[in-house]
Amino acid sequence: MLSWLIVCLAYARQSQADVFTYTSDRGTLYIVDDIERLPEEYREKEKERTKIKVYNYAVIVPVEIKYKNRSITIDLILDTGATITTITPEIADYLGINENDKTVGETTIADGSKVNHSKFIADEMSVGSKTRIKIPVAILGRKNKDNVNGLLGMNFLSNFPHMINIKSREIKWQ
């Protein structure tokens, strides 16, 4: 019985370990369980990971937004269905966005209805090591009970191929 428990524990520990892959110049796929076993030229790429939180099946990502002389890091829900990144009016106020900085538009939301929103161009938006310059951001909604301040949309995500690993709670940038 004890040997069975040891095998189960070893398997559970192994299943939670990081797995790294690389393809050689000859096209052979290698899979290793330790970053030190990767050839040097593949290690930097493997380090490009961003820690995430997961609440009620939502992936929460820390996002830094810079506008004029202000910067803030906030939690946004990663939303591949959102065409544009959104923030709450409270965050827009903190960044010092005034009426002259905004344009007004209309957005179709998930249920098909249309809502008015304001939009501005952030100087910079970063998630981990990935950054976009001069990116449109909509001001929409309000902070939810989990202190999430909007949605990280495809206008950021589509520029950076990535994989989400829920188990290890990270985004691996490709």
Could you describe the 3D structure shown?
It is a single chain. With 174 residues, the chain is of the alpha+beta class. It has 2 domains: 2-47, no CATH class; 51-173, Cathepsin D, subunit A, domain 1 (Beta Barrel), CATH 2.40.70.10. Helix content is 18%, strand content 44%. It contains 4 helices and 13 strands. The chain has helices spanning 2-15, 40-46, 89-95, 154-157; strands at 20-23, 29-32, 49-51, 53-55, 58-67, 70-78, 85-87, 103-108, 114-127, 130-139, 150-152, 162-165, 170-173. The strands form 3 sheets. Strands 5-6-11-7-10-9 form a 6-stranded mixed beta barrel. It starts with a helix and ends with a strand.
Shape verdict: elongated
CATH fold label of the largest domain: Cathepsin D, subunit A, domain 1
Q: Distance between termini?
A: 43 Å
Tell me the fraction of residues in β-strands, as a range.
Answer: 35-45%
CATH class of the largest domain: Mainly Beta
Mean pLDDT: 84
The total of beta strands comes to 13
What is the SS-derived class?
Answer: alpha+beta
Key features?
single chain; 174 residues; alpha+beta; Cathepsin D, subunit A, domain 1; 2 domains; six-stranded mixed barrel; 44% strand; elongated
Give a quick rundown of the structure.
This protein has two domains: 46 residues, no CATH class; 123 residues, Cathepsin D, subunit A, domain 1. 18% of the residues lie in helices and 44% in strands.
Layout of helices and strands:
Elements: H1 2-15, E1 20-23, E2 29-32, H2 40-46, E3 49-51, E4 53-55, E5 58-67, E6 70-78, E7 85-87, H3 89-95, E8 103-108, E9 114-127, E10 130-139, E11 150-152, H4 154-157, E12 162-165, E13 170-173
